[in-house]
User: What shape does this take?
Amino acid sequence: MKPSERFAKKVWRKPPKKDSKGHKVPNKSGVGKCAICKQQISSSKSKLARRNFSPAKSTIRTNRPYGGYICTKCLKVQAIEQTRALAVAEK
Ligand SMILES: [Zn+2]
Assistant: This one.
């Protein structure tokens, strides 16, 4: 047993026509990280992997394009670069 799994919650699931089997559920799923700079997104909230507490989707990540996937700094840089590329292509 891994030390991280010591206090993990165990759930029992019974597949059809088979005996029930215990599965370890991780205590927490991680906080969101930026896909570009790999830094932790401050607005993202760690969600409990257990189903007994599931917060609202809007509280887990921000409600904007690429929210919870790319941080604001990287999104700003990307938006500026892509609009400049579009302007060059139109000329
Ligand atoms: Zn970033």
User: Anything to note?
Assistant: The radius of gyration is 20 Å. DSSP finds two helices and two strands in the chain. The chain has one domain: 3-90. Residues 33 and 39 are 5 Å apart (CA to CA).
